[in-house]
């Protein structure tokens, strides 16, 4: 598919097998396929190809964990060793990955923005740029990258889906729906377009329509990678939660949201988020918290993304162990006060205090902290739907405070 629609960038030092592997990787990345790991074999076979090393490192970094950073190290080392006499386009992508590995997300995005401005036909760089823009809560860049993709690849599979999501996050619901539906006409299995349209329906409050839409798409997700498969099921559970169908929520959680890859941070985040929402809705998650908690404890020291750490805090709160909760909160406070730290940590701190206050029954403090957090919470990344959990906790705090006042 990629050979028909997308030309690869310059790839110095790659043999024919390496070029074929890059094309396969392009298809898998854009289509959220299950075979991204095939790129590692190609990178291992061509250690002098800087660009393949860079993309292999990027895949490990995108695991979003300390072990992902560790696994990326040999590829980053080979990338640096092979960077002499490569094309400027390759060099710019390699530098973006190097900055990414140093947790300089903003500079990594800046390099990808510059790269795709000069070479807008690099669809993979566009996709990775959107990844960083999303994590940074940079909707302007997310949309600009989507617009570049659509200008150069209109009609290609999976491109309209990535544009649709950028439009939805920029509050253009009509444009997002139009692009998502067009994406599905081009490629029925465009799971990111399924996801974008679910976001539109979520934002419009169309829970029944959203549930029906995603139920119609579920059979197509079995052939996809674990992230998009679980995340789309998460959206379906969210619709059923809004509809009050608690049995279906629990069924989806048990069958699709937990257990396939517990070590994967995105699975942990999705599970913690859904369990907290269930708690707010009066559904007892029971023992479902325990395995999520065990993984969150292993992640508590990673400190890669504030968005992640807030979700790990949900799991830690479920155990009620005051010391580990206090230690986690102290680590967030330290990051928030560190000079030149990513703004996301400062934005996350009042939210962390708010959800903890809610869990302790201090609803007035929860209201104050969460109301303070919300105006800047976009900086932690995540989508509107994912960050809505903090709005929901704020509403629950206000409701509980009001009830306590009446009593």
Tell me what portion of residues adopts beta-strand conformation: under 5%
Do you know the CATH topology of the largest domain? Serine Threonine Protein Phosphatase 5, Tetratricopeptide repeat
- Domains, number: 3
CATH class of the largest domain: Mainly Alpha
Round the mean pLDDT to the nearest integer and report it: 96
Distance between the termini: 64 Å
Outline type: globular
Number of strands: 0
Q: Structural class, please?
A: mainly alpha
List the helices and strands in order: HHHHHHHHHHHHHHHHHHHHHH
Report the CATH architecture of the largest domain.
Alpha Horseshoe
Question: Major β-sheet, in short?
Answer: none
Report the uncertain regions.
none
Helix run count: 22
Please tell me about this protein's structure.
The chain is mainly alpha-helical. It has three domains: 1-153, Serine Threonine Protein Phosphatase 5, Tetratricopeptide repeat, CATH 1.25.40; 158-257, Tetratricopeptide repeat domain (Serine Threonine Protein Phosphatase 5, Tetratricopeptide repeat); 262-407, Alpha Horseshoe (Serine Threonine Protein Phosphatase 5, Tetratricopeptide repeat). Helices cover 74% and strands 0% of the residues. α8 (123-135) packs antiparallel against α9 (139-153). The longest helix has 23 residues, at 384-406.
Short summary of the structure?
It contains 22 helices and no strands. It has 407 residues and is mainly α.
């Amino acid at each position: 598919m990629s050979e028909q629609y997308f030309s690869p960038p310059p790839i110095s030092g790659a043999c024919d097998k390496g070029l074929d592997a890059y094309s396969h990787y392009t298809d898998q990345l854009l289509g959220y396929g299950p075979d991204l790991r095939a790129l590692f074999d190609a990178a291992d076979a061509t250690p002098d190809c800087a660009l393949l090393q860079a993309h292999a490192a990027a895949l490990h970094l995108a695991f979003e964990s300390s072990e992902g950073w560790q696994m990326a190290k040999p590829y980053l080392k080979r990338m640096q060793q092979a960077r002499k006499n490569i094309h400027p386009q390759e060099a710019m992508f390699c530098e973006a990955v190097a900055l990414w590995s140093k947790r300089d997300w903003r500079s990594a995005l800046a390099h990808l923005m510059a790269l795709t401005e000069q070479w807008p036909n690099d669809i993979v760089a566009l996709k990775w740029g959107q990844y960083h823009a999303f994590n940074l809560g940079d909707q302007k860049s997310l949309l600009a990258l989507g617009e570049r993709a659509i200008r150069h690849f209109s009609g290609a599979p999976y491109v309209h889906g990535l544009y649709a999501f950028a439009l939805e996050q920029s509050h253009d619901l009509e444009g997002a729906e139009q692009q998502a539906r067009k994406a599905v006409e081009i490629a029925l299995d465009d799971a990111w377009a399924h996801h974008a349209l679910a976001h539109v329906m979520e934002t419009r409050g169309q829970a029944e329509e959203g549930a029906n839409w995603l139920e119609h798409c579920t059979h197509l997700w079995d052939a996809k990678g674990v992230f998009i498969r679980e995340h789309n099921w998460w959206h379906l559970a969210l619709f059923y939660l809004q509809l009050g169908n608690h049995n279906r929520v629990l069924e989806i959680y048990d069958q699709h949201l937990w257990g396939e890859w517990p070590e994967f941070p995105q699975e942990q985040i999705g599970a913690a988020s859904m369990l907290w929402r269930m708690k707010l809705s009066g559904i007892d998650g029971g023992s479902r918290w325990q395995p999520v908690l065990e993984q969150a404890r292993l992640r508590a020291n990673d400190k890669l993304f504030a968005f992640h750490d807030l979700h790990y805090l949900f799991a830690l709160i479920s155990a009620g162990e005051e010391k580990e909760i206090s230690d986690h909160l102290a680590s967030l406070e330290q990051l928030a006060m560190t000079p030149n730290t990513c703004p996301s940590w400062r934005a996350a701190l009042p939210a962390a205090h708010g959800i903890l206050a809610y869990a302790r029954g201090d609803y007035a403090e929860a209201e104050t902290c969460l109301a303070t957090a919300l105006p800047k919470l976009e900086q932690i990344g995540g989508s509107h739907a994912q960050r809505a959990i903090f709005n929901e906790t704020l509403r629950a705090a206000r409701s509980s405070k009001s009830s306590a006042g009446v009593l």
